[in-house]
Specification:
Elements lengths: L1 E7 L1 H13 L3 E6 L6 H9 L3 H13 L3 E3 H8 L3 H17 L11 E4 L9 E5 L4 H16 L37 H5 L13
Parallel strand pairs: 1-2
Antiparallel strand pairs: 3-5, 4-5
């Protein structure tokens, strides 16, 4: 008997190999690493809108893997938008080839143990092993963004400020400067050019 399995995670593959060996079967398993890496975590965080990224950063940094839902609401408002964005990031990453199928959501809800049937989220958490990975991803994103360099101080003013009424360079004389025509004058039938060009 020959069995070929693709897309198995490491733990599942080891169990299958042991089972196949017990039955003298020839088994080929193509294992897929579904663990979060810094590169994957960076792509995940970069793909999130601002509110969802702030949500994730609070779980990772502020809460060290666990933050009460009320605290998140105080910071980002309603949680519907960020949580939807977090959940959509996983299948989008699979489609984009950023990570394989089977990667677990890094941030998951914690339900109220006193009312399990209500599915009321009282907090959000990240597994202990993923926290340092995502912390490194946040640091990598901060490095990518870069800190804007302080602008050079302006040089001290060494001349006189130009007059707002000076004739712009290139104009022959003050008579050639364009005039401002107000819409009210046009609607009232006033001739803004009357009296100009006469007696010359």
């Amino acid at each position: 008997m020959k069995i070929t399995i693709e897309g198995a995670d490491k733990d599942f593959a080891e169990k299958l190999v042991a089972l196949a060996a017990a039955h003298h079967a020839e088994l080929t398993v193509a294992a897929v690493d579904t663990n979060w890496t810094v590169e994957r975590a960076t792509r995940y965080l970069r793909s999130l809108p601002a509110g969802a990224r702030r949500f994730a950063e609070m779980v990772i940094v502020d809460g060290d893997g666990y933050v009460d839902a009320d605290r998140l609401r105080d910071a980002v408002g309603k949680l519907n938008g960020p949580t939807v964005a977090l959940s959509r990031a996983i299948p989008r990453g699979v489609r984009e080839g950023w990570w394989p199928e089977g990667v677990s959501a890094p941030i998951t809800p914690v339900y109220d143990p006193d009312n399990p049937s209500w599915h009321k989220n009282i907090a959000y958490e990240m597994t202990r092993e993923n926290v340092p990975v995502f912390r490194s991803a946040i640091a990598a994103l901060a490095t990518d963004r870069g800190v804007p360099a302080s602008p050079e101080p302006p040089a001290p003013w060494s001349g006189e400020a130009p007059s707002a009424f000076a004739v712009p360079s290139g104009w022959a004389s003050a008579e050639d400067v364009p005039m401002v025509v107000f819409e009210n004058d046009i609607e009232a039938g006033h001739d803004t050019k009357s009296g100009q060009g006469q007696g010359g």
